[in-house]
Structures are given as structure tokens and as C-alpha cells.
């Protein structure tokens, strides 16, 4: 059978529990696709404690799909996705998609994406669910999608598809992170050599990648249908959300590095640049506060976070005093001292 279009499905893999990867790949196997579509599943085993081969021992693939497992020394999800992107390029995939190994797709996810990208669409994403959201999906929670539609940032195009207005394409990503990595499908030709920033190993590499991809796209389209069920396997970011987590300072350090990279590498208009700079200032204050809080509670200095920011941003100890002073001033004025996530 001759396939006229090929979709690469890139799955970075690092899990400690058996069965998680198999569920993810089974959801790819269950995709309802036209006969002219081929799927290339690319699993990058990032030195997972449970090997990909062991987890997929019982897998039977449909005729439209092939599977390749690549192995690498542990380097984080961004590096694993980059390895997958290189392999997808070598295979000549027309489109690339991402699926975290603890997530699962709804059967119509890829078909919905390919229909939305059928003409000049280059970037697609749909809605998703996660246990933490409760009964509402991500786009429903806090009326995320409705707010952007009311503002005119997202609207129906002539074919009744939800499309992000080009002039405001970064707004829903910057302010609401409306897409998640497992929900996006991209046109390979348009994205070219775009890759994930591997310095952002535990936070933000996906957001930065999506911002860069959105600015390359001729058109960004979305669906309010749920396409992904996000699981709860190994997740470095969500595991450190607690203020008392020993790696909480690293979360703030990574957030500061992320927003600095956004300012440095994404084409921003004046409004978006102002927002990004406010995030940078806020996470500078937040890092100083959490670093001091961590020391007061444990009498330990979180050296890894300090070394990261010193190497990447030239952070100096004097910044701690400046940041803490900023926290005090804003709290006395009754303002939010810094972003928490």
C-alpha cells in the first residue's frame, strides 16, 4: 500500500512502572486514520529503569504503523524529543507529533489534526484532561478557551475551524500555556530544524518550543475536543510544586531561565515583551525568596540551582538581596510578590 502522508509519533520514555508505555502506544495503535496515512512510532528510551522493549513485549502493531526504539544516556525529555525529531527527519515524516509515555490519545486525535492542517495549517493542538483538573478539561477550567474567544484572539475561520489570530498567536501560550506537548501536531517542512532547549531539562522546554513553533507557523489551529488524557507517571515538574519539596528552588531557577530564553529567542511584540519581562522580574524575586526560605528551614544552600543560574545567566549573590528587597516592597504595597508556577 502506498501512503501519501507520514506522521512521526515521538515518545520520550523514562518510567519506573511497567505498563505505562504500553498504554500510550496502544492509544497510537487505536487511531482512526485514512488508509493513505502511515504512522512512524519513535520511542527514545532515556535510560529508563523499565526498558521500552520489556514494556512493549506483547504489542501487536496495525498495518499502518511501524515502531523504532532508540536508546540514549539519560539526558531529559527535551534531548529525547530532539533525538526523535532527527530520526523523524531521516524517515521523511510529513508531520510530527509528541506523546509523553504516561499520556494517551483519544482515537480521533491524529485524524482531527491532519484535517485541520490540510491546507496552510502548520501547528495544531487540542484539549486535554488531567486528574488535577477534576471534571473539567484544561480548556474548560477557569474558562481558558472562552476567554480567548471573547477577546477575539481565537476565532472561527471560513471553514468553521478554531484558529489563533496571527498577530496574537503568542498570547494564549504565554499567559495560559493553552497547549500541552502531547496535544500538538506540526508540519515538518515548516518547522525545519527547530529543536527543544536541553538546558531547560526539568521545566519549560516544551513551552519555549511551542512559542518558537507558533511564530514559524502560517496558521495555528486548535480543537476544543479532548484529544489527550495526561497520566501521572514520572514528572519532574509536578513532583516539585510543593513549597517544601527539596528541589523547589530549582523550579524557580528553571522558570527564570525559561523566561529569559523566551525574551532572547522568540520574536515578541511590545505587549508580549512587557509581559515576559514582568515574568523575569517576578521569578528573580521568587528565586531569592525560595532560596532564603529553603535555607531557613533546612540550613542548607541549594547549590545546584545557584550553579545553574550562575553558569547560564551570570547570577550573583548580590541578586539575592535585591530579590528579597523586591519581595518586601511588593508585599508592603499589597501586590503579588512573584509568580508561583
Helix and strand topology:
Blueprint lengths: L4 E9 L6 H10 L7 E9 L6 H4 L9 E7 L5 H15 L3 E4 L5 E2 L3 H8 L6 E8 L13 H7 L3 E3 L5 E3 L6 H6 L7 E4 H4 L13 H12 L3 E11 L5 H4 L8 H18 L4 H29 L4 H11 L4 H15 L9
Tell me the name of the CATH homologous superfamily of the largest domain: Spore Coat Polysaccharide Biosynthesis Protein SpsA, Chain A
State Rg: 21 Å
- Number of helices in the DSSP assignment: 13
- Structural class comes to alpha/beta
Q: Judging by the overall fold, what is the CATH architecture of the largest domain?
A: Alpha-Beta Complex
Uncertain parts:
235-240
Overall pLDDT: 92
Would you tell me which CATH topology of the largest domain applies? Spore Coat Polysaccharide Biosynthesis Protein SpsA, Chain A
Helical content, roughly?
40-55%
Largest sheet: 10 strands, mixed
CATH class category label of the largest domain: Alpha Beta
Terminus-to-terminus distance = 48 Å
How many DSSP-defined strands? Answer: 10
One letter per element, helices H and strands E, the order comes to: EHEHEHEEHEHEEHEHHEHHHHH
Report strand %.
15-25%
Global shape: globular
Looking at the chains present, what oligomeric state does this protein adopt? single chain
Number of domains: 2
How would you describe this protein?
This protein is α/β, with parallel strands linked by helices. The chain folds into two domains: 5-236, Alpha-Beta Complex (Spore Coat Polysaccharide Biosynthesis Protein SpsA, Chain A); 240-332. It has 13 helices and ten strands. Strands 1, 2, 3, 4, 5, 6, 7, 8, 9 and 10 form a ten-stranded mixed beta sheet that branches. α10 (248-265) packs parallel to α12 and α11 (270-298) crosses α13 (318-332).
Amino acid at each position: 500500500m502506498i501512503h501519501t502522508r507520514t506522521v512521526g509519533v515521538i515518545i520520550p520514555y523514562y518510567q519506573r512502572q511497567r505498563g505505562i508505555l504500553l498504554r500510550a502506544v496502544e492509544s497510537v495503535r487505536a487511531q482512526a486514520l485514512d488508509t493513505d496515512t502511515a504512522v512512524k512510532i519513535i520511542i527514545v528510551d532515556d535510560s529508563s529503569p523499565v526498558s521500552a522493549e520489556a514494556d512493549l513485549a506483547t504489542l501487536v502493531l496495525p498495518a499502518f504503523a511501524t515502531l523504532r526504539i532508540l536508546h540514549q544516556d539519560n539526558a531529559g525529555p527535551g534531548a529525547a524529543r530532539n533525538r526523535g525529531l532527527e530520526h523523524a527527519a531521516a524517515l521523511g515524516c510529513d508531520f510530527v507529533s509528541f506523546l509523553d509515555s504516561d499520556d494517551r490519545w483519544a482515537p480521533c486525535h491524529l485524524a482531527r489534526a491532519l484535517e485541520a492542517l490540510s491546507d496552510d495549517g502548520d501547528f495544531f493542538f487540542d484539549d486535554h484532561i488531567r486528574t488535577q483538573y477534576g471534571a473539567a478539561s484544561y480548556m474548560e477550567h477557569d474558562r481558558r478557551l472562552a476567554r480567548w474567544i471573547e477577546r477575539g484572539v481565537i476565532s472561527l475561520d471560513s471553514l468553521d475551524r478554531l484558529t489563533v489570530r496571527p498577530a496574537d498567536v503568542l498570547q494564549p501560550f504565554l499567559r495560559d500555556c493553552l497547549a500541552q506537548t502531547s496535544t500538538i501536531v506540526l508540519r515538518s517542512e515548516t518547522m525545519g530544524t527547530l529543536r527543544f532547549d536541553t538546558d531547560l531539562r526539568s521545566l519549560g522546554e516544551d513551552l519555549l518550543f511551542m512559542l518558537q513553533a507558533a511564530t514559524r507557523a502560517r496558521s495555528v489551529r486548535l480543537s476544543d475536543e479532548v484529544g489527550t488524557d495526561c497520566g501521572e507517571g514520572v514528572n519532574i515538574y509536578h513532583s516539585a510544586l510543593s513549597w517544601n519539596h527539596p528541589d523547589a528552588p530549582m523550579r524557580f531557577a528553571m522558570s527564570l531561565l525559561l523566561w529569559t530564553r523566551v525574551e532572547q529567542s522568540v520574536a515578541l511584540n511590545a505587549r508580549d515583551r512587557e509581559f515576559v519581562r514582568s515574568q523575569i522580574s517576578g521569578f528573580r524575586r521568587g528565586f531569592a525568596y525560595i532560596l532564603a526560605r529553603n535555607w531557613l528551614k533546612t540550613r542548607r544552600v541549594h547549590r545546584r540551582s545557584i550553579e545553574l543560574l550562575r553558569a547560564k545567566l551570570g547570577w550573583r549573590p548580590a541578586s539575592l538581596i535585591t530579590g528579597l528587597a523586591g519581595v518586601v516592597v511588593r508585599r508592603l504595597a499589597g501586590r503579588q510578590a512573584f509568580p508561583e508556577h
